[in-house]
Write a structure and sequence with these properties.
Blueprint (H helix, E strand, L loop, with lengths): L1 H28 L3 H16 L3 H4 L4 H10 L4 H18 L4 H22 L4 H14 L2
Helix pairs in contact: 1-2, 1-5, 5-6, 6-7
């Protein structure tokens, strides 16, 4: 019974994260990027206890521990990586150094997703390659 509760909780976290990222991407496409970033970051903090600013400062081991403590799954590591990429793509035109921080953590999240899931994904590999191209342009 406890396991069912935990599984429902983890699934709910994934749905909330997906909704937040979807809202951000919709606002981003409507050129309301700054508002979208603020709203998404606040929702991540309020609803998932994920502080994006803090997350960006963490090294690999601390990042993994931070997210696993919050029951974030490998799939949600990917969703979070997609979000960081979206923010980074916008920041490339306004703050190169900050964009690099977002891209670096997005790459790390994909690597951790492979590690946490104990599987290798060609889709994650493609995403990582695309992120590395953005980072080194």
């Amino acid at each position: 019974m406890e396991r069912d509760y935990i599984m429902r909780h983890v699934e709910q976290l994934g749905k909330v994260m997906a909704r937040i990222v979807e809202t951000f991407l919709r606002l981003k496409s409507n050129t309301q990027v700054f508002q979208g970033i603020e709203v998404a970051n606040q929702q991540m903090k309020d609803e998932l206890d994920i502080d994006i600013d803090y997350l960006l400062e963490l090294d690999r081991a601390a990042l993994k521990a931070y997210l696993l403590k919050r029951n974030i799954t490998a799939t949600n590591f990917e969703t979070l990586s997609d979000y960081l990429r979206g923010v980074a793509e916008h920041k490339l035109s306004t703050d190169q150094k900050e964009a690099e921080t977002y891209l670096t953590q997005a790459i790390t999240l994909l690597e951790l997703a492979d590690e946490v899931s104990a599987t290798y994904s060609f889709e994650r590999m493609d995403k990582k390659t695309a992120l590395e191209k953005l980072l080194h342009r």
